[in-house]
Amino acid sequence: MSNIPSLARLLHDPAATGIFAVTKADTDNILRAAAGSGFNVWQLDLSSAGNSAALLAIFGRSLHFPDWYGENWDALADCLSDLSWCEAPGHVLLVRGTENFLARDPHAFAKLLDILHDVCMIWREGGVAFWVLIDAKIDDIPALPARPHR
Length: 150
Prior knowledge:
Layout: H1 4-11, E1 19-21, H2 24-36, E2 40-45, H3 52-62, H4 73-82, E3 90-96, H5 98-104, H6 106-125, E4 129-134
Parallel strand pairs: 1-4, 2-3, 3-4
Helix pairs in contact: 1-2, 4-6, 5-6
């Protein structure tokens, strides 16, 4: 993924957004393109999270959720669907350490993916790109789509 301009075009396309697996080698280019586009870029590491409570706390800290964030699944969905405290033309969430968390709490990981999928659809319907990038190869999470070469 060395073509940053075509990657930036892809990142701006809300219709292409969703949850995707990326390689560690690709993440630097993706994050650079997103930051250059004025997107909010968040990186969080779930490798130390042993359960859903720890995961929810990591999200709150990493994304600087407002004080009303209740560290529960509904509050996570509400905060990710709003983001009014950090408006931007688009959003990229890079999640690291997912394989470790998945091994510890597969039920919570599945719940997280459901919420992230719903959040991506909400933003897509509003015409705003919201990307969730998982830096691991996990079944049922597709690779980042090919970029147009222009």
